[in-house]
């Protein structure tokens, strides 16, 4: 017979629940032949108290925006999370025992949002806590709901810098709706953790970063309950519960023993473990319920009035981005995030227009992306911006956002050697490779203000992770304000029946291609010029036609030769079975300081080099 | 007449030196038309005291391993650094005034090691302090020299998580030879910093992370001197001097005023500033000298005995890597760094053999790379290892290491969907794109134990950043132990005069290619099989010959389609003017959990799909 526990259940019942979570964690991982039972056993008491008494969540309507959020930053403790799902009655024992970690099923090795009760994918440590800060911010300051965010962290992950970026922001924003629970079980994957059971050291760090630390014995249910009550009663103080626990707790053969990380118990050990834990139980939990479900507000259709630019005026694409971003802000679901460079990226235009939806994360790119992801989870459309070079700082967060199938827009400014005197540390020359390789991404690289503004607006309706690459300097506006720029398209700026070569550029190199075409024309060489503003997806049709009609292509990019525009073009031609002689000009050496013109020329991507490459192709 | 200051100069003279540094910072940036004078003015007093009284450095022999190290983590304060070089007599006024930030010259916008007094490039904030921890570790624990490391940080960069990874390690390793000086000038690029002048908040954080904090008025020369004296006298306590300063100090028109970050003073303002600062001076500095120069020890030629494997045995490439790494450790300059996954990467084999040169950074991939870079600066050859997926966490550090022209070896294990049940968070499917796009990198991806061991050994003699991609599972050993694997080469495992198609793989897909060739042979289709173990540089000759002789290529990679092996092959063929029909099989959808076989097949990169692709190419 099933017994249902709730907020009024006494601690002896909750102990039984914890034991059930342990039993099911052991059983599930043993049945799968892989997984992390010992990392689950340490946190079972914490989670039993949380789900019975504190987590305000209706498991049957996970979309309820007023419900709390539970994030497993230690995603490898998925056996515990899935055992909780079973206790909640949304996953049955058969699913747990026969599908965990198996192909084609949703109970994956680490949690992902293919499960309706999972907000986002974890498993890269130090990330769940960072996303949780973004969710807490979104709940309090955007959705204005009373939801709390509970995040379970491992102790090993506390050495990730991203954890401290997160707690810094939790403290700064006074996120009283944020509670992290650190499962200090002392043992990492390959040995003792850095701080082992020095819970006071954790507490000092947490307090220094502006959060309240509550140190407890993580197996003392009463102490845990009191700590979570204190956390939940918080007005504006973020709380970190530092819980001293034992890895493998409850199973004497593995408890507090090194060498059992990420290993399922063999079947005979699992049987003994289940027996030691008191055998299987059939407890269900119905914890505290959130307020009446609130539907997500349907954003009213709003007219976005993008900025207009006059052909021939000199305007930087980053300037156009900023103005367009401010315009896109007419949509109430759009938010902007900055890493203290808003006056360079021009995201500050959004800040001026919509300060209530502008989030300054200071120089903490990982947390900027994590906050964006958290806000996306809550239904908002983030635009996160910094220098293209510094987006590499958040690569792992962007990668994981793709696993979470998050929709967000990124903008990287100051791309390429074009930036000039600041030198190579500030030059984004790897960002196209990074962003193209993100699963399901869209990569855009406008050459003028009109297209930059149009693509910035278009990003608000794209699914997945989209990336806009902008340029520091001002260049002539090429397109009328009413021109359209479909994603996956391109613009052919020069063409004729006698074209002998096609010059392909984007961003600054498009302007160099235009200048090169002029020089080639002086030599009597007709050159087609293609603005490849959509790098992914790329306009295969136009490239194939150019290959067929001109036979020769020069591709020039302000980026390293690997993974950027040149290889995108080669892939497109290959996929269409098209052949052409392609000269690929890219940044192949370490640049220094200089003027834009000097650096483009030194990198071999200036008009001079483009024209020379065309002449060489034509023999 | 030139006056030379030294350790015995009184503070009034050092004040004059500080003013000279300010004057030259203003003059240099105004002459260049760009740069960060106000960020230089705030730190001039700190650096004047340091260079006159504490920095034990012989400017004429920067290679002296016994000398101190000075790192500008706030690399944008390059005017101040270069003004110090002028005061040291190694850069003259003409160079400072006519070459700073100009093309083809060494005084770049942010410091790089093209300057002999600069250990490594900075300008991506939060990195210099992390590298400094690595240098301090190398000096104390590897070189066994008494050098101190002094690193100047900006206050804005203290929000980067990497800073706290660094201070955590400084504290853990009790690096008494490490001193960070935080220039708390309250103003960032676009407004006040997060903590403004809350020096006590910085101090609390620093102390919580195990370092000693000394809070001073950064313009009180006596206080600064005492703090640096305390730091220098440290036995085993790392010190962080939290210096309250004024941005633009000494120039009333800009002092403590927002809106002057990264802006040179216009000429008229610069003139007034120089006048207010007391005009130009001609001071030289000869600070405390380090011990007699010690030549770097020339490593004796050592015999490395790589592990040997028997053809047909099943051995994982990561296992072979670990054994080979332990063997390479016979070289005394080789060090290994781990991010708490040494039992997965098998770097632990090195730990067992050479514990004194094994560095556990726990789960802090940014600091792992930063420590590796710091050790490389000190003449060591680091091997830094974690999961391929988690190397993305350190992308910005790897990028900057390339700007610093560092030599180091990286190994990323658990590549691709091959890993199986753990799911997408643990799968490296973007790492080839990331690592190929690193300037000057070498990218290697062995398919068997013999080649994995050989390439691991080869990496110890490669310049620049090299990357070895390894696989989780065990696969048959393909090559005799005496086989050689030149970087830039490949192995053709199957070939004949009648080959109709070439199957190109690396890592796990090479084994799938071999199986596919068997199936095709059953259909009477002769397939060549190429093991493309060297992804960058790639074996263009072999690929070109295959294109010419077989006309059809199938490239299969356990990686996203962008930036990986497929595009490397297309680039190689294009560069050689070779044409072929190329079927490109790669991971194009989000994987889940499952067995290796299930996931390879679901991703379309299994033998079945490779054989099908070949048949389709052949019509």
Automatic annotation (TrEMBL), chains A, B:
PROSITE patterns for the chain: TRANSKETOLASE_2
Going by the UniProt record, its keywords in alphabetical order are: Calcium, Magnesium, Metal-binding, Thiamine pyrophosphate, Transferase
Cofactor(s) for this UniProt protein: Ca(2+); Mg(2+); thiamine diphosphate; Mn(2+)
Any Pfam family: Transketolase_C
Q: What is its EC number?
A: 2.2.1.1
Residues in Transketolase-like pyrimidine-binding domain copies: 315-477
Q: Top EC class per UniProt?
A: transferase
Q: What cellular component GO annotations does this protein have?
A: cytoplasm
| Matches recorded under CDD domains | TPP_PYR_DXS_TK_like, TPP_TK
Entry protein name: Transketolase
**Subunit note:** Homodimer.
Example GO molecular function: thiamine pyrophosphate binding
Query: Which family does the UniProt entry place this protein in?
Result: Belongs to the transketolase family.
Record-linked InterPro entries: THDP-binding (IPR029061), Transketo_C/PFOR_II (IPR009014), Transketolase-like (IPR051424), Transketolase-like_Pyr-bd (IPR005475), Transketolase_BS (IPR020826), Transketolase_C (IPR033248), Transketolase_N (IPR005474)
């Amino acid at each position: 017979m099933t017994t249902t526990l709730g907020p009024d259940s006494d601690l002896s019942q909750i102990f039984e629940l914890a034991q059930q979570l342990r039993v099911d964690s052991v059983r599930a991982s043993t049945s799968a032949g892989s997984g992390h039972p010992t990392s689950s056993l340490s946190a079972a008491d914490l989670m039993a108290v949380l789900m019975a008494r504190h987590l305000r969540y209706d498991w049957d309507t996970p979309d309820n925006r007023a419900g709390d959020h539970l994030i497993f930053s230690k995603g490898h403790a998925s056996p515990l999370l899935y055992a909780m799902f079973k206790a909640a009655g949304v996953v049955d024992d058969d699913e747990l025992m026969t599908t965990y970690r198996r192909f084609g099923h949703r109970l994956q090795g680490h949690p992902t949002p293919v499960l309706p009760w999972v907000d986002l994918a974890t498993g890269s440590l130090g990330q769940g806590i960072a996303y949780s800060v973004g969710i807490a911010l979104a709940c309090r300051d955007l959705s204005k709901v009373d939801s709390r965010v509970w995040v379970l962290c491992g102790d090993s992950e506390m050495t990730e810098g991203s954890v401290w970026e997160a707690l810094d922001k939790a403290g700064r924003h006074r996120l009283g709706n944020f509670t992290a629970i650190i499962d200090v079980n002392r043992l990492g994957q390959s040995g003792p953790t850095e701080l082992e059971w020095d819970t006071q050291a954790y507490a000092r760090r947490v307090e220094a970063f502006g959060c309240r630390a509550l140190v407890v014995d993580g197996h003392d249910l009463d102490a845990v309950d009191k700590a979570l009550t204190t956390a939940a009663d918080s007005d504006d103080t973020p709380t970190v519960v530092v819980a001293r626990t034992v890895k493998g707790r409850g199973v004497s053969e593995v408890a507090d023993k090194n060498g059992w990380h990420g290993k399922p118990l063999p079947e005979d050990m699992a049987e003994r473990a289940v027996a030691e834990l008191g055998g299987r139980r059939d407890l269900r939990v119905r914890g505290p319920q959130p307020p009446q479900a609130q539907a997500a507000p349907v954003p009213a259709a709003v007219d976005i009035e993008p900025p207009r630019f006059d052909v021939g005026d000199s305007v930087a694409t980053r300037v156009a981005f900023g103005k367009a971003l401010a315009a896109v802000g007419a949509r109430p679901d759009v938010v902007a995030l900055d890493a203290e460079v808003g006056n360079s990226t021009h995201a500050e235009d959004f800040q001026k227009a919509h300060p209530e939806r502008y989030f300054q994360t200071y120089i903490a790119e990982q947390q900027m992306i994590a906050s964006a992801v958290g806000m996306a989870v809550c239904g908002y459309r983030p635009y996160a911006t910094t220098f293209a070079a510094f987006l590499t700082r958040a690569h792992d967060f962007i990668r994981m956002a793709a696993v979470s199938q998050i929709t967000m827009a990124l903008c990287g400014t100051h791309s390429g050697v074009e930036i000039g005197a600041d030198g190579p540390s500030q030059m984004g020359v790897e960002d196209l490779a990074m962003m193209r390789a993100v699963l399901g991404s869209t990569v855009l690289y406008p050459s003028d203000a009109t297209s930059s503004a149009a693509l910035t607006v278009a990003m608000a309706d794209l699914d997945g992770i989209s990336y806009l690459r902008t340029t520091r300097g001002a260049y002539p506006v090429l397109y009328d304000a009413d021109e359209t720029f479909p994603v996956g398209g391109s613009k052919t700026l020069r063409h004729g029946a006698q074209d002998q070569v096609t010059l392909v550029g984007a961003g600054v190199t498009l302007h160099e291609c235009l200048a090169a075409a002029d020089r080639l024309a002086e030599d009597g060489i007709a050159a087609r010029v293609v603005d490849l503003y959509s790098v992914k997806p790329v306009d295969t049709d136009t490239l194939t036609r150019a290959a067929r009609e001109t036979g020769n292509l020069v591709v020039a990019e302000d980026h390293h030769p690997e993974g950027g525009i040149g290889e995108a073009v080669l892939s497109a031609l290959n996929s269409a079975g098209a052949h052409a002689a392609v000269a690929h000009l890219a940044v192949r050496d370490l640049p220094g300081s200089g003027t834009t013109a000097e650096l483009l020329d030194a990198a071999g991507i200036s008009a001079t080099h483009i024209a020379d490459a065309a002449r060489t192709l034509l023999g």
